[in-house]
Amino acid sequence: EWPTVRLQSIGCSRRWATSIVLVVFVGILLLMAFVVLPIAWQQGIYLIRDMPGMLNKLSDFAAYAHSAVST
After folding, report:
1. pLDDT recorded at residue 71
2. Ranges of each domain in the chain
3. What is the DSSP string of 16-51?
């Protein structure tokens, strides 16, 4: 509510103040989407690419841990 009240205090009508706040909010959301989504997509691709090696390392570690506990 405070951005709308602030804009009204400098002379904007409530309709214009609400519209400005809405446009700024949607703009920030779109900017974040265009910045964050490509990074998240690339990280997902890296995860899928590296998953077999990670699972092999996990399997090797589990076998080592099991043998260390068994002895």
Report:
1. 67
2. 2-70
3. HHHHHHHHHHHHHHHHHHHHHHHHHHHHHHHHHHHH
